[in-house]
Input
Amino acid sequence: MEDGKSSSQSAGKPIRCKAAICREAGEPLVIEEIMVAPPCPYEVRIRIICTSLCYSDITFWKLTVPPACVPRILGHEAVGVVESVGENVNEVAPGDVVIPTFLSECGECEDCCSKRSNLCSKFPFKIHPWMPRYENSRFTDLKGEVLYHFLFVSSFSEYTVVDINHVVKIDPAIPPDRACLFGCCIATGVGAACKVANVEAGSTVVIFGLGSIGLAVAKGAKLCGANRIIGVDVNPDKFEIAKKFGVTEFINSKDCGNESLSQVVKEMTGGGADYCFECVGLASLVQEAYASCRKGWGKTIVLGVQKPGSQLSLSSFEVLHSGKTLTGALFGGVKAKSDLPLLLKRYTDNVDEFVTHEVKFQDINRAFELLMGGKCIRCVIWMDK
Output
């Protein structure tokens, strides 16, 4: 046992394990044996139980311009068990079940101490290839080549190393294939509806994009008591699925004829929606969502991951005269350590329908095919099952 921190025989030593590596943008991941270094001070080494595939992983898997980089270990929605910890780590111990999160909570900075923000200023969110404190990697391949991190998590590996500010201890009784969804999907969607928008009972909500995040928003809006939840998508098949999550009406954005999407929404809602959520990651759709909100009090919440360099173009006249709100909601406004345990307690029993597929780790590329094929909401990837 080292410093009383771990009884693991592997503590303080590199671990040889398997990881799915993105070596070329858009090419199938390659499963290889890698070396995972022991945790440095303030770090935790985690054995991943299962991870799910988020469309943000696909976005950066395809990306060929900065902040893209290869070879990289993607994945950021997971649950695991602490294998060992570095010095100065007291929050968790070996054997604890944890969720690694891409957003930090240091508990000390002005933002973390405020109820108004979930954006830690001491360890800010970045699309970063390194560990947050040391600007280096804990991964190498068997040739000694450095492998880059992704969103401070890199869960497409049997073992990963995460900074303690990105680790949330959870109840081990929670099924891991449900708990992992709270690392991004559920927290982002439900949090955006309940915490950022603060959707009111009886209100009208429009969700642009009925992928997993959009469906999580629908779930949150329904829990808040929204009266009308209108889903917008290019795939009409998604409406039947979305009904299970609370969506009451559907707009096929390809069938708007000569009208803009926002005109259709305004006609349906008698002047605009109370709340609009953009869940795709298109600047043009953000503009349509903002235009679809009701003047005076309408709120547009941006959740979709935009490509680097995307720009919004809004009329300053409309911004001034409409009195509407446009805001982003990274991780649904959820504070990782403060809010996730409560979210898990409240909503774990409401997320079964999100998991539509499960695969073994060696079949991880199948998860990519399923999600891109539009038939999958969330595919859970089991590391050892």
About this structure: Confidence is low (pLDDT under 50) at residues 1-6. Residues 15-20+34-41+55-183 form a domain with the Quinone Oxidoreductase; Chain A, domain 1 fold (CATH 3.90.180.10). DSSP finds ten helices and 17 strands in the chain. The two ends are 29 Å apart (CA to CA).
